[in-house]
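Chapter review: from sequence to fold.
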Amino acid sequence: MVRMTVLELVAQLPDPVVLLERCRALAVLDAVFDTRFRTYRFDPAWGGDGVALAEMDNGGGDLYAIVFDPAGVFLYGFDHESDATPWREDDRVHWPGLLDGLPPALARYATEPAFQFDGFFDATVCAWREAGDDRWRCGPVEFEDGESDGADFLFELVLDGGADAYAEWAEDYFECPVDGDAVAAVLSGAPLTPELVRVLNPSADYAKIAEEAAALGHRIR
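The token string follows.
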């Protein structure tokens, strides 16, 4: 079976501005559905000086982080069951070529303490896009047919960007019906309203969600 790896991911990732807004919207939607255990998070002031961070953590050992820096965007993911896991060796090692070519302006994120696990940068996917560049890039990794780095699994929702994909995921994850039109409104950047939140989650506390959404930079009405 042919699976998408980072080589295909970099050809499909949207413009950084679009990607940032999708990440923000996913965090808002997760806030509406789940007040305690979040899968998608967004911090618009994570690193100061205009550096934002989007994260996904499914609680099962798989995650990603996307750093939006004025110098560019740094993206990495970790699929613990993928062929590219550093844990395939007793002494963890990255998949050959994973970090090759990482520009100096973004290289510090591969050693960022927040992204280390037991002193090692656990990553199976890595991509970047410097400010002013017209495309996403990755290292010269190679995969045999059927091998995976988890790119398709990890970044499915941010690649799709559509309401149907999120609604399908949310219905399975939260085990409740999900209104696709309401999801589409949030993904489009429409202001969050009590009515919109009520349609998505009748038991949600709108005041708390509105406060959090506003802190994330989403519009509130």
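Two observations follow directly from the output. The mean pLDDT is 95. The longest helix spans residues 16-33.
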